[in-house]
Design goal:
mainly alpha
């Protein structure tokens, strides 16, 4: 029995798998260590086989130097796309970090080796909630769909205009800070007003030492009003998914 192998088809699928694997290693929610490396590799190969009719059409076999150059290009492309998605969804974690900072939880900072998050309670809690919502709302399917469409806009082995990814990264970082402040903004305002009230109380009655009540009061306010942020998280994840797709389309 003879098995005929098309070298051009195999090269195209391998290059597509490289882009897919690099993206899955960097982009949330697939970047979490809850997904073993073997699962990520199997998923990348499966996606590469799924898009093989699109990536192999018109592909011609390359020599060794050309294949290595295309391999490096696919690594760069997958890393850029994954980094853009990571920037967008980091807004939720950054919002949790802001709440930790203003609510007095920053002193309990720790490192979560599974999610690779270095932060206090709300930063890690928001990160886990975002991962759960991405899967429960089906946002991960839209992210994978945006990745597969990148092969139509940027065929494997094609040239990359670095100006568009840099512009998309600049836009993504700007939106990261803006989104994190918007998510945590109402709670931050409440905590700021609590500090102002304690300051005025100290001025009126210095003997009360009102700032001694600052930490327990701010922790109580944070735990009470953080529920409102969790209620809004599904809509926030939906909006961030749209922003991620917009950035992927902008690069393409």
């Amino acid at each position: 029995m003879q098995l005929a192998i098309n070298p051009a088809w195999m090269e195209a699928v391998m290059l597509a798998a490289v882009r897919m694997t690099t993206f899955l290693v960097i982009a949330p929610p697939f970047s979490s260590r809850a997904f073993p490396a073997r699962i990520k590799a199997m998923l990348a190969i499966g996606l590469a086989l799924a898009v093989s009719p699109a990536v192999t059409a018109g592909y011609t076999s390359l020599d060794t130097a050309g294949f290595l150059a295309a391999l490096a290009l696919e690594l760069l492309m997958g890393a850029l796309l994954g980094f853009l998605v990571m920037i967008v969804f980091s807004a939720v974690q950054s919002a949790g970090s802001l709440i930790d900072l203003f609510g007095g939880f920053q002193l309990a900072q720790g490192f979560d080796p599974q999610s690779m998050v270095n932060g206090a309670q709300f930063a890690r809690l928001f990160n886990m909630a975002a991962v759960v919502l991405i899967f429960s709302t089906g946002a991960y399917q839209l992210i994978i769909g945006g990745l597969t469409r990148s092969f139509s806009a940027l065929p494997i082995g094609g040239a990359i205009d670095l100006g568009r990814p840099v512009e998309a990264m600049t836009t993504g970082i700007t939106e990261l800070f803006l989104s994190s402040v918007q998510i945590a903004g109402p709670l931050i305002v409440i905590l700021f007003l609590a500090d102002v009230g304690l300051g005025l109380l100290t001025r009126v009655a210095p003997a009360l030492n009102a700032f001694a009540l600052g930490f327990p009061l701010k922790i109580l306010l944070t735990l009470t009003f953080a529920v409102t942020v969790f209620v809004a998280l599904p809509q926030i994840i939906e909006s961030l998914t749209g922003d991620a797709l917009k950035l992927l389309t902008g690069v393409n």
